[in-house]
């Protein structure tokens, strides 16, 4: 499992960069979403896959006696997932609004703003 995840992360980063370089607005947003997911998976792997007890040290102890899971990467991942979900919801609304305004999601067709003034 630990050998498969770095390759999966690399594939996700590569696919996200491929989609980001497209001139289609929807593919650009999808690439950014994949980039965020790949980053979350990278942070998950960096935080180690080993299971351990809680990071609570008992009263009268100075050091944990058994291996424990690091709570910082877990907190970072939860925060990143929540923020990513909000950004994805905003991006979906943005794509809908851009399509309503321009009638297309191609970035080359959206380069001129004169079309908007002619329609209104």
TrEMBL record:
UniProt topology in membrane: Multi-pass membrane protein
Subcellular location: Cell membrane
Cellular component annotations (GO), alphabetically ordered: plasma membrane
Pfam family, one: Oxidored_q2
Superkingdom, taxonomy of origin: Bacteria
Ranges that cross the membrane: 6-21, 28-46, 75-95
Family indicated by similarity: Belongs to the CPA3 antiporters (TC 2.A.63) subunit C family.
Protein name: Multisubunit sodium/proton antiporter MrpC subunit
Species, as recorded: Pontibacter virosus
């Amino acid at each position: 499992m630990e050998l498969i995840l770095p390759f999966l992360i690399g594939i996700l980063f590569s696919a996200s960069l491929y989609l980001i370089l497209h001139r289609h607005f929807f593919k650009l947003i999808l690439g950014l979403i994949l980039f965020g997911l790949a980053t979350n998976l990278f942070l998950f792997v960096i935080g180690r896959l080993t299971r351990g007890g809680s990071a609570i040290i008992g009263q009268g102890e100075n050091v944990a006696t058994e291996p424990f899971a690091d709570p910082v990467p877990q907190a970072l991942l939860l925060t990143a997932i929540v923020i990513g979900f909000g950004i994805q919801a905003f991006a979906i609304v943005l794509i809908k609004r851009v399509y309503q305004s321009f009638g297309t999601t191609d970035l080359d067709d959206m380069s001129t703003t004169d079309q908007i003034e002619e329609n209104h």
